[in-house]
Amino acid sequence: MITPPYLQSGDKVGILSPARTVSAPEIEEGLKILKSWNLEPVIGKNAYNVYGYFAGTDQERAEDLQKMLDDDTIKAIIFTRGGYRTIKIIDQLDFTNFKKNPKWIVGYSDITVLHSHIHALEIETIHAVMLQGMPRATPESVASIKSALFGESLAYKMAKSNKNKFSGNTVEGILVGGNLSLLFALNGSVSDINTAGKILFFEDLDEYLYHIDKALTALKRNNKLADLKAILVGAMTNIKEDDLPYGKTYYEIVLEAVREFDYPVYFDFPCGHQPDNQALILGRTVAITPDRDSVTVAFKN
């Protein structure tokens, strides 16, 4: 995998809205944080556009992103927020120059579309809090973005869940994944990820239990769950019951989907739609080590 150049003081970073609309006041605090790191935000022409639910038309959002992908003075692209609609512009984008001069792509949720698509180009990306969410994120979550961007070490220790499926040993593999609903939507497309021999991460928000089951079943039928090193499950936030109780928790749904496989499954990693949303480098080799009371997730430098 290719690691984009780490940021240096004074670097320019692109600010874009590829999905849901956002206002300037909503990202003001996030911009202040970037400036405190001595970075220079460059706001896309259409970043504050409003086209119904979206930050401009598909063409306007694609034009903004294409310009930032091609601008070699922009050293990272940090998105304002997620929502929905990045999937509608991904096929309009040309990554020719980006492949020659890669830069960090930073975001999560709907940005899974870009993480997944770029993974096929063998370039690392950063799954992390976006600008609109920075004021509500924990200080540790925000600091982890800076660490990832500037090339500092990343390692996390989380409490061991009694729901985990253990192997007892350290497992290593390239980390891939993102939002489960988007991985489901990308399944079988040109933006799909190759999970063979890798560690799969996923999180989700506001979905029904049956949808979690449906998404995992679709991934399994496409052999995305058969040859993993491990699964790392992040925050599954506000997962809902339908009028008729589903009869299983999401923990049980995940474990049932992988019961015939012998790799470990680790739940409750602090990443996803919650204030504690730690940065992950997708495409980077990570080591997951369980001990008596905790699980350490450490990225290889």
TrEMBL record:
Print the keywords alphabetically.
Carboxypeptidase, Hydrolase, Protease, Serine protease
**Could you name the active-site residues?**
109, 203, 273
GO BP terms in the entry: proteolysis
Keyword Lipid metabolism part of the UniProt annotation: no
UniProt-recorded name of the protein: Peptidase family S66
Per UniProt, residues of the LD-carboxypeptidase C-terminal domain are 172-287
Species of origin: Flavobacterium johnsoniae (strain ATCC 17061 / DSM 2064 / JCM 8514 / BCRC 14874 / CCUG 350202 / NBRC 14942 / NCIMB 11054 / UW101)
Q: Which family does it belong to?
A: Belongs to the peptidase S66 family.
Q: Name one GO molecular function term.
A: serine-type peptidase activity
Classification via InterPro entries: Carboxypeptidase_A_C_sf, Class_I_gatase-like, LdcA_N, Peptidase_S66_N, Peptidase_S66C, S66_fam
Q: Where is the LD-carboxypeptidase N-terminal domain?
A: 13-128
